[in-house]
Structure formats: structure tokens, C-alpha cells
Amino acid sequence: MDTILKTIFHLNKMDCPSEERMIRMKLEGFAGIKELEFDLENRDLTVIHQDSAAKIENAVKELDLGLTEVNTFEVDGYIKRDTSGDSRDRRLLWTVLWINLGFFIVEMTTGLISRSMGLVADSLDMLADAVVYGLSLWAIGAATLRKKKVATMSGYFQILLALLGMIEVIRRFAGDEAMPDFRMMITVSILALIANSVSLYLLQKSGNKEAHMKASMIFTSNDVIINIGVILAGVLVFYTNSKYPDLIIGGVVFLIVVRGAIRILKLGK
After folding, report:
1. Got the DSSP string for 231-264?
2. Is 48 a domain residue?
3. pLDDT, block means (10 residues), the chain with 269 residues
4. E-assigned strands of 50-182?
5. Residue 229 within a domain
6. One domain for residues 108 and 154
7. Would the pTM count as exceeding 0.70?
């Protein structure tokens, strides 16, 4: 019988659910890996595997997540994790993906109509979430090289859109632009907030305490915070009669999108 090993990686920069998904996708094609366990709070990744840890370590290093410590032990009496609920979890995550993709279309359309950079930026954040969910849920049998190509194209596409958005924010800061429609900003953001709240409720209702489901909950919680930020910006546009609150929140969210896209690009290495 092959020896079962447990390797614990400490990653200083693994502090976000998107990084947990990046690692899962990066290591998906390794036949010797039996389980991945994530502790985002302590920034530890535990890999249960059969083959040498060196190949796994090299793959993790490529993601540049601040690997500082690697410890490997033999495992006695290994019992495979019960995966009976995985198909249900995958269906749930697909539901969250489609919610994100749907609201990308809604917020992008209404953002352009209402001249709100906050809504446009939030739509790109929704798209970034959908891409990460989609990449991590893509058919298990898909070729790793194909996934890397899609990740690279997605990353560059998101960066391009975010940079164009930042340029537009700067142009509107400097120019004499029309005020964004605060009513549409608030209404659409409230709808997005409801959608993300429903997603968060479904994830919590699943009762699954696995790391990947916890990560999805944190991911969706971050979206809720951004939705509230855009709502607040809309309220400030109304009270101050100024375009600047919308531009500020838009700029901040565009930067968040760029940060996420750079993480996705690391998968193409």
C-alpha cells in the first residue's frame, strides 16, 4: 500500500476566498492528491497526498502567495472524506454563479444608462466572481492547459475593462459631467444586495462547514459590502448634489476587480 502523506503549507498571502479557489484549480490535475483542506484564518493549506510533496510545492509557489513553511508527515489510518454531498454543493455554487452573471448584465446595462460608475464597477466585480466560480466548477475532465488559457484570457479581459473604467473615472473627475441617476443607483444596488443576500442565505442553509463553502460565504459577504457601498454613494449623490461619491466608489471597486484579475492571471503560469 502506498504511503499517505500530509503536507502543511503556510501561505502569508492566502487571506481571501478567491485564493482558495485559485489553489484548488491549480492542483486539480495532480493525480496523487486525495484531499485539500484550507484554513484561511491561519493561512494554512493542508494537502493529503501520495506522491512527493516537491511537485505540489512548486505548483503552489507559482501562485506567489507567500509560501514560508512546508511540513510533511506520514498519515496513519487515513479515511477518505465523505463526498456524498459534493454534487449538491456544486449545484448550489452553480446557482450563485448564475446570480452573479445575471447581475453583471443588469448592473452594466443600468450603470451605462444612469451614468453611474459605481454600478458599472460593481457589475465587473460580479463578473469577476462569476469567472472565479466558473473556473473552479468547470468540468473535472477538462484539460488543465485549456483551463489555464481561459483563466489568462479572463484575467486580461477583466483588467482591460477595469482600466478603461478607471480612465473614465479620471475623465469624469476632471470634466464637467452630468450627475449620475441616484435613483437608479440605489434601486439596482438594493436588488443586487437582495440577490447576494439570497446567495449568502442559500450557502449558509446548506449547513456545509467545508472550507470551500465557507470561502464562498466570505466571497458573497464581500459582495454585500460593495453593494452597500454603492447604495451609500447613491444617497450621498442625492444629499450632496455631487458626482464625486459615485466616482470614488467606482474607482475603489475597479481596483478590487484588478486585484482579483491579477490572481486569475497567476493560474496561466
Report:
1. HHHHHHHHHHT-SHHHHHHHHHHHHHHHHHHHHH
2. yes
3. 80 74 77 80 84 83 83 72 56 80 91 90 82 62 58 78 87 83 93 85 64 58 84 93 91 83 68
4. 67-74
5. yes
6. yes
7. no
